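Human:
If only I could read backbone structure tokens as easily as an amino acid sequence. I am handing you a single protein, as its sequence and its fold in token form. I hope you can help me see how the letters and the tokens relate. Thank you; the sequence and its tokens follow:
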Amino acid sequence: MEKKFYVIIPFSEIELGLSKSSFNPFAKAPQKPPFDLVYIEEKASTVLYPRRDHLIRQFARIGLKASQLTTSELVTFFYTIYNQSSTTISSIPTNIPANS
């Protein structure tokens, strides 16, 4: 018997040092983030990777195998969730750029 569970590790803009005054989600005009994308990716990775590693170790302690999904696995996962009636693996695009 095989069961799969998915765990999402949260990350908040507060962890970047953003305040309510620096970013307003209810503004009518699209806002540019106060930090560049490279800084956001670096900061997020330094915060999220230790959390991921900790969860993988804790799952291993109780005998469960945990791993981070790759980009193509995430695309396949979300594609099957949102297209349940017409899901075939051959219809999922395979030319996905790997960013992570």
Notes: The longest helix spans residues 37-61. The chain is about 35% helix and 0% strand. The mean pLDDT is 81.
